[in-house]
Every structure is written in structure tokens, then in C-alpha cells.
Recover the amino acids of this structure.
């Protein structure tokens, strides 16, 4: 299936694609930056990544005191995960989305 096929499926379901981020590993951060701009929060995708990683570095526990590292067992350590996530073209995951939820709700 090509991207046009996916666009047709989206439109057939009554939705409108308003932003299609680049599929280069920075897509989650680009999409977050795009949508937050409508709330007056202006950040580049690179700044979004940097701020999220910095937040996770200083807040390694969730609101219940559970270590966030437990969500990423495929890394040997929390610092290793953060170093990985700080790299350009590294796909975002559920922890970045959790950051946005905690910060902007």
C-alpha cells in the first residue's frame, strides 16, 4: 500500500489529514511540535526532543513513583536510553507521549 492509499482510507473514514510529518525518525517530535503550535507553544522538532529528554532525565519516575526505566527494558540503563533518545532520527516512543500528556494537561 502506498501513502496515497492510506490517505484515501483516512478520508473515506471522514477524517482530514492536516499534517504529514517526515518519516525520518523525527516524525513524532515534528507532529508534536506542529500540533502544539496551535496552542501557542512554538518549538522545533529538535527542541521538542531536547526538552523531552531533559525532562525524562530529571524525572525518572512516574507520578506513582514507578521507574520509567521499567518501560524500556531493551536498554541496559536509563542513561543509555536517554542517550539513544537524544539522537537525531531516533523514533519517539510512549515515554515521549507521556511527557506531553503530563506537561500540557
Amino acid at each position: 500500500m502506498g501513502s496515497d492509499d492510506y490517505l484515501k482510507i483516512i478520508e473515506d473514514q471522514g477524517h482530514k489529514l492536516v499534517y504529514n510529518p517526515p518519516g525520518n525518525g523525527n516524525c513524532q517530535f515534528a507532529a508534536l511540535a506542529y500540533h502544539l503550535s496551535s496552542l501557542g507553544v512554538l518549538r522545533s522538532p529538535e527542541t521538542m526532543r531536547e526538552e523531552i529528554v531533559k525532562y525524562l532525565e530529571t524525572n525518572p519516575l512516574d507520578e506513582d513513583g514507578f521507574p520509567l526505566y521499567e518501560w524500556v527494558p531493551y536498554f541496559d540503563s536509563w542513561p543509555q536510553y536517554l542517550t539513544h533518545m537524544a539522537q537525531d532520527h531516533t523514533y519517539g516512543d510512549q515515554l515521549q507521549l507521556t511527557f506531553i500528556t503530563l506537561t500540557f494537561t
Observations:
- The two ends are 36 Å apart (CA to CA).
- Residues 5 and 25 are 22 Å apart (CA to CA).
